[in-house]
Amino acid sequence: MSFFISQAHAQGGAPAGAPPGGELFQIGFLVLMFGLFYFIAIRPQRKRQKEHAAMVAALSKGDEVVTHSGILGKIVKLEDDYLVLNVSENVDLKFQRNAVQAVLPKGTLKAI
Q1: Amino acid 6: pLDDT
Q2: Type and span of the H or E element at 89
Q3: Who's near 94: CB < 8 A, 6+ residues apart?
């Protein structure tokens, strides 16, 4: 029955061509890849989030803003998590504060 199962031979050590300390190189490579990913993806995203949070916190009545959906309007009322935009005569829309994408310079709505 031994002719159906091939014999397994244990290797005594590393192969002749493998450099010593290869495992340490792999761990270092993973750390380097995570560091690169942090500086390329995570750090810039956190910076944008902080800038947006500061802009949303600084909103005040009378600011002209544009929302993520592209609606332009003037803030007429601020609540805790909501704001009311006047987008046209007698047309007021209520949005969440986080829906504001950018604050426009004064007079932009009149120029459009």
Answers
A1: 65
A2: none
A3: 82, 83, 84, 85
